[in-house]
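Below is how a single chain appears once it has passed through the pipeline. First comes the sequence as given, then the structure the pipeline wrote out for it. We keep one example in the README because the format questions we get most often are answered faster by looking than by reading.
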Amino acid sequence: MAYLLILSLLSLCVFWSPVKAYQGDGRVDKMEDRFRTMERKLYQYMEELDRLKTMERKLNQYMDEHGHLLQQNRDLQRQVSETEKRNDELTIKIIPATGGPTEQVAFYAYMSTNTPPNLRQHHTLIYDVVKVNRGQGYHQDDGIFTVPSSGVYVFAWTVAIQTHGWASVEIVVNGVVFGSTFADGTASDWEHGSGIVVVETHTGDHVYVRMQENGNGVVNSNARGRTSFSGWKLF
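Resulting structure:
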């Protein structure tokens, strides 16, 4: 708008200059001076306008580049966050739980030889050969498994009886019977009795196998058949 206004004024001055010439050369000279002054200002204004437009283009270019860099930075941050999350998930899946007795518990033991004949009621069976004792809960000196960490456990046992003998055994947790099994040897062969229970236990509980009643004959354990006791933590 300013540019058009200046052009209009210049045109008006040029148009009226011949008409006003009769008033004297001094008046014309002043008009010409004013015209040249306005012309210079117009050129200055146009140069300034060009300079501002150039600055505007550079500013827009900078803003576009800056915005692009900001978007790239946000994308990179998102990728880093997603990568860290996937890495954490893979670490949890790949690295097994490490810990002491409270994490992994399992044991297996058996008798190295036959017992004396006719064991009495509530006699605790002692399994002196320990093959597995993860968590160190089983004690081979007294046959008792002491729960190292609370959880649900599975316990299994097997008793072997010679010919003409019999035995009834039971598994006990803190004095409470949780299961029992009976084996009766025939006239011509041995007999085996096995049992398994699932028990919810607490740290420090005692688990063991004992005679349910007076036995008849010996409890066998040799290469032909082992009398054994085992257990493991489910969760």
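Confidence is low (pLDDT under 50) at residues 19-23, 98-102.

See the next section for the split statistics.
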